[in-house]
Amino acid sequence: MELDLNILKPQEQAALRLRFLYEGAGYRKYHMGRFEEYGLYQENRRFLSSEQVITFTDLDGRLLALKPDVTLSIAKNAQPGPAECLRYYYSENVYRPNLESHTFQEISQMGVECVGTVDQDAVEQVVSLAADTLAAMGADHALELSHMGFVTGLLDAVGAPAAIRPQLLVCVRDKNAHDLQEIAGKAGLSRQGIDALRRLTSLSGEWRTVLAAAEPLALNAAMGDALTELRAVCEALEAKGKANALTLDLSLVNDIAYYNGLVIQGYLAGLPRPVLRGGRYDPLLEQFTPGARAIGFGVYLDEMERLSAPAAPVESGAPAEKVMLNVALPKGRLGDKVYNLLAGVGYGCPENYADTRKLVVENREAGIRYFLVKPSDVAIYVEHGAADIGIVGKDILAESGADVYELLDTGLGKCRMCVAGPKDFEDDPGRTLRVATKFTNIAKGYYAAQGRDIDIIHLNGSIELAPILGLSDVIVDIVETGTTLRENDLKVVTEFMPISARLIANRGSYQFKRREIDTLLGKLAEVIGK
Predict the structure, then answer these.
(1) pTM for the complete prediction?
(2) Is residue 180 scored above 70 in pLDDT?
């Protein structure tokens, strides 16, 4: 009987293809046990995506952990000798907390690691394997490259204080130029420095174009070296005929404590988040083998479960199907304002959504489709890829922690997040502060930055009532005019976050619908004067 591989799930088929690919490239399989000494993760927790690890006590009294990471174990055990370059691939399950379900998740991973004497040829081989990996997974794909040396070099060149660098990096990663400008301005950076950082958020696209635009920004040797390496890698991929799906995105940054050079990221069409991640991670390997270097990537096979059935082939000569932008539009006053803004730049619909009970309205000629959702759900629809873009208040975005691009401040729905309390309120640092709010994550983050102990009281409405009845000392809430506070003998204690409606985009959608998103973005920016 002939073996039919089509009975296998997509991720199982991919695992077989990748095994043949990696072994054919000279990588040997690395197998590890399910458990590791917990001390390994405790001592190297800065290299983990989360410090939360599943632990248990073994029969001999040792504290063990279900492995949350494969690369850390390879770095510990590989021990390459002088002038030696070891090449491994792995297929393992890891156990990490899922931020969406708030439970631990078993994740199926494959990947490659190149450790020891990693020269330019080894770097180019790993990146070439990343391109082959995406192609082997059987869908349209996009390969992104960046370089941490360029980003950290720019932060050095503009004199960014160490205290605000994590915030700046988050803004760069999210393409959030408006918040980046505000943070950098408050830190006293020069206008030229702020402009350079803002330009970083838009340095993405075809690799030659990006390199040409980035060269004038190369203000020191680290930045110049980063561009030189990126050019060499891109030219090597092109010479092998593997640059058709390649882009550079210099706003692609990863953990600055982990990655120190090239950064690699890969997407499959139809998936909302990267399916491949990796890069140069010398600092981790040097913890175990001083002077050694390392580069690699991991593939998240479980993500392939989200792929729908492949589309039917398009007949030769048939007109290309119109690319539709799916927009999560918030119901209510903000949604009305946003729709009117979009309709004014050519994205209106023949059918008025306000006059129908439909939850989806579209204009195929304009290439736009609107989903009408609760404002608090906009970021969720976009993060998970059900919508390509959305418009959401900064308050909801910050509270949700959604992993999306934040492309534009529309300026609509302006208000501010405040701490408010009774008119006679005076904070007593000697006791725990009771805070009532529906924005628990925002409140926790604000007070954690001050090192202030608080008790959170989560409420869903009538927040102003809490300090009046003695339920809390203060509240954290949105203030627009302050009328409600004044009428209830309350005052604003401090303002700490300006709020307005932001245009956000799914990271995967931005790879495959970038032309359409950028066109819409450009029209909006022209109208609102950004």
Answers:
(1) 0.89
(2) yes
